[in-house]
Amino acid sequence: xxxxxxxxxxxxxxxxxxxxxxxxxxxxxxxxxxxxxxxxxxxxxxxxxxxxxxxxxxxxxxxxxxxxxxxxxxxxxxxxxxxxxxxxxxxxxxxxxxxxxxxxxxxxxxxxxxxxxxxxxxxxxxxxxxxxxxxxxxxxxxxx
Length: 144
Prior knowledge:
By secondary structure, the protein is mostly helical. It has one domain. It is built from 6 helices and no strands.
């Protein structure tokens, strides 16, 4: 009896080149965020949702948090956004997958991101969005 196995083919040269370009952009972005302080540098974009409504989205504080993390201030990083470890894991996984695609032609498996994991992430992000915008203690601690 024949088994249906999915054999992952190697990426084409253009895909490998694009993956390398993606790694370069991510690296350059990390250098910029690590070097320039987003609270004082005027060229970082502001959150459009916060600018229009005053609400803190689940991503508010991530740039400042990554700046603090890249400068070895873990507690300040978590103070800017408590979900920073989750977003950091996703960015790191994507970066490693792009790196491996550029080098060997195959990235990491995406089996980790099952529908259950994706829906759980969306639930946590939505709950975080609601809780960090409640105007009373202890939820005010979640605001950046």
